[in-house]
Predict the 3D structure of the following.
Amino acid sequence: MNKPPGLLVHRTGLDAGETQFALQLLRDQLGRPVWPAHRLDKGTSGVLLFALDAATASLLGQTFDVGDSVKKTYRAVVRGWPPAEGLIDHPLKRMPDDARVGREEVQDAQTRYRTLEHYELPLPYGSFATTRCALVELQPLTGRRHQLRRHLKHIAHPIIGDATHGKGPLNRAVAELLGMQRLWLHALRLQIRHPVSNLPLSIEATPSRTWMVWPEISTHR
């Protein structure tokens, strides 16, 4: 499934006001039960993998838990112009609602990134006449909660539209300029082995046309 931004994977008490969920929509579309193999944040768009039976979902879940047998690739628009490429090696503390007895409080976390495009928006930011942003490709080498969003905040290049780890005034100004408000994070590609055949799978979800607004509005050439 290519999940749109703003759609929850399944019902949760943390967002009780929502009435639509990816699980429900896909179940209704196929006319049969489905089981999510992993999750994406509500604001994140892109590849979302489901299984058609509970046993396969359990096997896929075990694959995701191993971590190094799954390769994920994301695209994001971030504030500023990061270096051409790099490795963010920064341990992350478990989030308050993810604390479990007997588990370590701080976990190793690594993310590789590379900058694909530079943008410059006709939007004053602080003492600058324009706002610099960049399209980056991200590959999380570990699977910590909100890892990409927290790692990009750590290197001072937060994802545009990130209400938790980004800059509120900048997010609002960019949303007004673009005419849309969203988290600019997309799960582009998921590479995993089939839980039964063990054959490699590569699943892609093309970003929506709305992503083209960035180069179209940029004054950087």
User: Anything to note?
Assistant: The mean pLDDT is 89.
